[in-house]
Design goal:
The protein has one domain: 4-Layer Sandwich (Purple Acid Phosphatase, chain A, domain 2). It has a 6-stranded mixed β-sheet, with helices on one face. Strands 5-6-7-9-8 form a 5-stranded mixed β-sheet, with helices on one face. About 35% of the residues are buried. The chain is about 30% helix and about 20% strand. Strand 2, helix 2 and strand 3 form a beta-alpha-beta unit. The protein has about 250 residues and is α/β, with parallel strands linked by helices.
Length: about 250
């Protein structure tokens, strides 16, 4: 994709809408929708890098209720012709084809390569990448197994959705103080992942969420890792103007 003059590509992640309660997240959702309404004026594309919802599970004919403001605004933007790309996170990894069929928004379950103005990007949510975190990687295999999902769908939504929401909150799905601490370049698994990818292929930018901590790390003279932060504590996002990628903070 060539970015026209005056246009930008936007990247955002980790809204965790619905947490810790739908009522408590409503103000955050309104800020996010207002931001979407503002950036649609100059957006060439919008990337949502996962955990838009604190919990999302698609039954055959049912999806979790709520988030009408967000879904309506995404539909409006997409209908206007602006491409939107969605990457599932560890909290909405049960997303199937609802976004694709209802909103015409492609859904990705793994990092994808993109090229804008001859700049190479690797984009994803970031969960389960790099060394370590073996417990989560095993858990993810169980949760995404088709048999596991088939059994879970036998729970009535009035039981399955509240149960999953309770477990999601209980397992600290909202970033805590420890998630706001930079672990050093050797301790950040996504940095290690990016450096390993550079051993076999060049990327100008790596864009990930999941970490909840806005980060901009130079991996070498020509490659940069950016984590988009979250919409809980930091209200940060990234924008690419065709020449340079910048990490920015929502202004009051």
């Amino acid at each position: 994709m060539n970015i026209p003059a005056g246009k930008k590509v936007y990247f955002s992640s980790d809204n965790h809408l619905g947490a810790p309660t739908p009522e408590a997240s409503k103000s955050r959702e309104k800020k996010f929708v207002k931001w979407l309404d503002e950036i649609k004026e100059d957006a060439a594309a919008i990337f949502l890098l996962g955990d838009l919802f604190d919990f999302w599970f698609e039954y055959k004919h049912v999806v979790p209720k709520g988030f009408v403001r967000t879904l309506g605004k995404l539909a409006e933007i997409r209908d206007s012709g602006i491409p939107i790309y969605f990457f599932v996170g560890n909290h909405d990894l049960w997303m199937d084809d609802y976004f694709e069929k209802e909103l015409n928004i492609p859904v990705y379950h793994k990092p994808q390569k993109f090229e804008f103005n001859n700049k190479k990007f690797l984009v994803g949510h970031g969960d389960g990448l790099g060394p370590g975190d073996h417990g989560y990687k095993r858990m993810k295999k169980v949760f995404t197994n088709p048999v596991s999902k088939w059994f879970y769908r036998w729970l009535h939504p009035d039981l399955g959705v509240p149960l999953a929401q309770h477990l999601s909150i209980k397992n600290k799905l909202i970033s805590g103080e420890e998630d706001q601490q930079f672990l050093g370049e050797e301790g950040e698994w996504l940095i290690q992942y990016c450096r390993r990818k550079l051993e076999s292929q060049h990327y100008d930018y790596f864009l990930f969420g999941h970490r909840h901590l806005p980060l901009e790390i130079e991996l070498n003279e020509t490659s940069t890792y950016v984590n988009t932060g979250d919409w809980i504590n930091f209200y940060t996002y990234a924008e690419f103007d065709g020449n340079e990628l910048r990490l920015k903070k929502l202004q009051p």
